[in-house]
Every structure is written in C-alpha cells, then in structure tokens.
Amino acid sequence: MTETRDNQIVIAREPGGPEVLDLVTRPLPTPGPGEILIRNVACGVNRPDQIERLGFYPAPPGAPEGLGLEVAGHVEAVGDGVSGFAAGDAVCALVAGGGYARYSIAPAGSVLPVPDGMAVEDAAGLPETVFTVWTNVFEIGALSRGETFLVHGGTSGIGSTAIQMAKAAGARVIATAGTADKVALCKTLGADIAINYRDADFETVVTEAGGADVILDMVGGAYVQKNINCANMGARLVSIAFLTGSRVELDLMRVMLKRITLTGSTLRARPLAEKARLAAAVKATVWPWIAAGKLAPVVDSRFRLEDVRAAHARLDSGAHAGKILLDC
Length: 328
Description:
The protein contains ten helices and 15 strands. It has helices spanning 47-53, 120-123, 127-140, 157-168, 180-189, 202-208, 223-230, 252-258, 272-291, 308-317; strands at residues 6-12, 21-27, 35-45, 70-78, 90-94, 103-107, 111-113, 148-151, 172-177, 193-196, 212-217, 231-239, 261-264, 299-304, 323-327. Strands 3, 4, 5, 6, 7, 14 and 15 form a seven-stranded mixed beta sheet that branches. α3 (127-140) packs across α4 (157-168), α3 (127-140) packs across α9 and α6 (202-208) packs parallel to α7.
C-alpha cells in the first residue's frame, strides 16, 4: 500500500463553468469486496462530466465522490473476492465517479488490462468511449458487416472511436463534423464519407449515398427527424446525448413505414453485473482490434490534474478533436 493515506480528487463545488472545479484532499479509499484500488496515471474527460459540472447529471447512488468516469493506471490493492488482478498490473477501468483523482475505486468487473502495446496514459481514453460505442452501436444498434453506419460528431471522443470500431467490424461509415480539419480527420480514421454539416445538408448527402442502417446521434433537436428521413428500411437510430435539445416534434409516419427502431440508452447507472458483461464483451471483441492496429484513442490534448479547469474550458469550447486527458 502507498505510504500516504491521502487522495486528491476533483469536485464541482456548485453548478457552473470550469471555475467551480476544485482539487481537494480526501482520505485514501480502501477497496471493499469486489473492488480494486487503482493508482491512476491518467483519466479521461468526457461530455457527461461537463453536464454533471453544470448540475444536470447527478451521480447514481453509491458512486464515489467527484467527477470522472474512466481511468488508467496500476492496481494498488484489491478487495476480498477479487481474482485475476495483482498489485502493479496495468489496467484501465470504467467508474461511476471519482475518476479525476490520484487514486480511484473501481468494481473489478469494470476493470480491464491495458491492451498490449498501448501506453497506460493512452488507455485512459478507452473505457467510456469503447463501452458506449459497443453497447449502443453493436448491441442495441446491431451493426453488421456491410451495413452503413452514420455517426454525428465524428471527431468527438465517442465519434472517433465509433468510426474506427465500425470500420473494424466491416461497416461502411459516414460521419459529420463541423470544420474542414475535422472532416479530414474523420476520413483519416476510416470514414468512407465525411460531411461538413456547415457546408452541406447531411440528410441529402446520406440519402444520395444510399441511406443509413444504424445512426448514432449525440445532437438531438432537428437532427432526429433528419436522421429518420435518411434512414433505410429497418434502420436503428440510437440517441446517447442531446446537444441541441431532447424535446422534438417528429413525423412518426416515416418511423412506421420504414419500420425504424428509435431508441437510446445511458451507461453510468447500469448495474455492476451489466457493466461486467459489457467489459467481457469488449475484451473479447474490441481488444483484438486494438492489438491488430484497427483502433486507438485519438488524443486531442493532455492537462495536469491540477489544470482540470483548463481541460474543461477546452471541452466547453468544442474545438477539441478526440479525447482530452488528465495526467494524474
């Protein structure tokens, strides 16, 4: 066990902008049964963290104090009943909170070994995005080889991961982004078609390209009807965020006539057993893609844990492409 008995975590002292984030000292947590204490090397900064900071995404009951949903580092200690992990192992993990920290507690079922050949600090950009894409695109959306996949926000952490995973699975990929540089990055990541939504109507482009079978939407608002309009027969539309609003007016006739599935999900509050099942599926299918060089986190920028406010200012700006990471 580490010599110090203290931990440092990031909290939002009240709802607001990046200025409400504080680095505070707390006692070093002790892993309970089925838990692992991780000495973090890095952690990921994600859009849900921003929403929580603003006061709209409360942590589920029992979640560790503080912001942060994904970490990577080394096993410091394990609780009773944990097998397969030992002190010093390089791991990454999905956590329900407390990821912005020197040390984090993670349920053992949500902990995965750092993929072979990947730096520990880069693996911090995997859990939240990979788990999210796997459950929404591949399980709920049932994306299959040869189908066309449309993802909005193609250079976000989720989007950049989704492009790579969909291509690894043999899908045709269409992505939207808001600048010429981001469009170019989408193509570099494997998108067959990349659309600058400021210059072209994605609905028209996707329709003319043959339509989409699975759509991952993080925008909401007017995009929902446009997604329906360019969706193919039997398409699956999965919503995971609503950057322009969750309340929309829809023409459901097209949903009915095209036999479209319109659905959505969240990840954070799922039961531990469900997250463990997802982790096993990710390890079995996605980790080999990483080993084969088909998937890697796109890192936009790195900040020290002490500079978390600057990291959130970068997130708020929308200028980032890929993951923002904190070095712990």
